[in-house]
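Working notes for the structural subgroup meeting. M.R. asked for a predicted model of this chain before we commit to crystallization trials. I am recording the input and output together here so anyone reviewing the notebook later can reproduce the run.

Input as submitted:
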Amino acid sequence: MKFDFKGITAEELSFKLNRVKLNTEDKLDIKPQFSRQVRKVTGNDKLNFIALSVKIQSTEAEPKPFDINVTLVGVFEVEVANENEERTFVIEGTKLLYPYLRAAVTNLTAGAYVAPLNLPVISGPIFPEDRDVFAFSVDNSKLN
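Returned structure, recorded in token form:
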């Protein structure tokens, strides 16, 4: 598998301040929601886009001091031989984009003159479906 990172762009950067009164003894639970969308360009199977998003929304049940929507799109040129390599590309491309997403959220909140929000550092896969289910496997056809 070979992939080249061609660039990144912001598709959405939004911040909305909510007039929510929080008690000083209450712990604020931000609970960011991450999502990802992978697209190929029609007519050019090598050109791929990965859109990585984070959303923080206030609700009546869980009020938050602000709402945030950030979507960044990475552009990649990819050569994959099979479905497993394509899965590996999506995981690695997502890991490459995540630090940019963290920086965008931090800069967006700082630019809104609120305490900068730092998303957690994630060293492994972000999405549960990207984690390997089994640590190892055995091919029984080779055992006698």
